[in-house]
Write a structure and sequence with these properties.
Layout (H helix, E strand, L loop, with lengths): L1 H53 L11 E5 L5 H10 L6 H11 L7 E5 L5 H10 L8 E4 L6 H11 L4 H9 L1 H10 L25 E4 L6 H17 L2 H7 L3 H14 L3 H16 L7 H8 L8 H6 L22 H8 L8 E4 L5 E4 L2 H17 L2
Antiparallel strand pairs: 1-2, 3-4, 5-6
Helix pairs in contact: 2-3, 5-6, 10-11, 10-14, 11-14
């Protein structure tokens, strides 16, 4: 009998413990569920508020205008990144999905003046119609492959500044110092090499520049061109560092590619020829550097030009990189200089028809020269 009572008491104790445990578990489950619910609610609310904020103008009261260039072939993701980088929108991802939600397409390449006060719909309308938010009072188109003095001539034609004044300003120690302080990762001590003819040669990016003022300060024009170079180079910063190439070397080699290439397909192979020659200690032997050393255009160079023009830029007499860029490079040439093709070519020549022929040996190169260049000259 006592055994039964003991069992009942034990069972009663066990049941009470189970009840307590169940109650504790229910409490834990309830608290956990509540926390998860609150977290989800917080995340959803935070997400909603963030997206709601990101859809609004960056600064509704801003009177600032930002020059934004949308390159040819840019997709929505690229455009969104460009807009975010220029602080015209708050979030590239939100812009991308907003455009997708609205089923907006047919954005046009071009240079735009956009404002942080614009709504997303206003930005989208501008990009679709190809019209700037506010018409530029001054537009300066700078083609690829021009020397600094030629760029100065273009600026002079579009403004009241003389070519001499522009060249003197961009070469002045005061302006160079200002440019170095403004873009320290782009413009380094490399531009101060005593052998460089123009310190900022190759740092004025070829593009179309728009200005709200009809007569903007000269330094504003020049700094806009340097900023564009900085924006382009910055995209390749990680790869530059991993490959151990300086910005100055990149722009220098890119300018050689720009001057030698006739189309996009040849640029990376031309770059590979330059790298192959430097790796084996061969001089680059590229004609544009000799023309740059001479200081005036030549349709044809002579043996005397190649080997009697004693100048640091003459890559027939000097191995390795020339002291600096010899012209402004397109982004295609910059990419080619950074990502050259893999080849075993050491020579190339351009035919009168604009075709670039590559060779592995000097003998092969001379045969092509005799066939395509000398024969063409003798037929004239």
């Amino acid at each position: 009998m006592d055994n039964n009572k003991d069992k009942e008491k034990i069972m009663e104790i066990v049941n009470k413990e189970k009840y307590k445990e169940a109650k504790t578990v229910r409490k834990i489950v309830f608290i956990t569920t509540a926390i998860i619910f609150l977290l989800l609610a917080g995340i959803l609310t935070g997400g909603y508020l963030y997206i709601h904020s990101a859809l609004k103008p960056v600064d509704p009261d801003s009177k600032q205008e930002v020059q934004v260039e949308i390159p040819m072939g840019s997709g929505t993701s690229a455009i969104a990144s460009i807009l975010e980088k220029n602080r015209v929108i708050k979030d590239a991802l939100v812009f991308k999905y907003y455009v997708k939600f609205k089923n907006e397409t047919d954005f046009q390449a071009g240079t735009y003046l956009l404002s942080p006060s614009m709504t997303m719909n206003e930005i989208i309308t501008s990009l679709k119609t190809g019209s700037v938010y506010k018409k530029a009072a001054l537009s300066i188109p700078v083609p690829e492959g021009l020397r600094l003095t030629e760029i100065a001539g273009i600026i002079a034609k579009k403004t009241d500044y003389s070519t001499e004044e522009i060249v003197n300003t961009v070469n002045s120690p005061e302006f160079i110092k200002k440019a170095m302080e403004t873009y320290p990762e782009l413009i380094t001590e490399d531009v101060l090499n005593e052998n460089i003819k123009f310190p900022l040669e190759g740092y004025l990016f070829p593009a179309t520049y728009s200005f709200e003022e009809k007569k903007p300060p000269l330094e504003e024009i020049l700094l806009a061109m340097i900023k564009k170079t900085n924006d382009v180079v910055e995209k390749y910063r990680i790869d530059l560092e991993s490959k151990g190439i300086t910005v100055h070397q990149l722009l220098t080699l890119a300018s050689l590619v720009e001057e030698e290439a006739t189309n996009e397909a040849d640029r990376k192979t031309i770059a590979s020829v330059f790298y192959n020659r430097m790796e084996t200690g061969m001089p680059l032997q590229t004609d544009p550097t000799v023309i740059y050393a001479i200081g005036e255009h030549r349709d044809r160079l002579t043996f005397k030009d190649y080997y009697e023009v004693v100048d640091p830029y003459n890559t027939y007499l000097n191995s390795g990189y020339p002291p600096g860029p010899i012209a402004g490079s397109s982004e295609m040439s910059i990419e080619a200089a950074l990502y050259p093709a893999s080849s075993d070519y050491y020579y190339f020549l351009a035919t009168p028809k604009g075709e670039v022929l590559f060779s592995k040996t000097l003998e092969e190169h001379n045969e092509k020269y005799a066939q395509y260049i000398q024969s063409n000259q003798s037929n004239k």
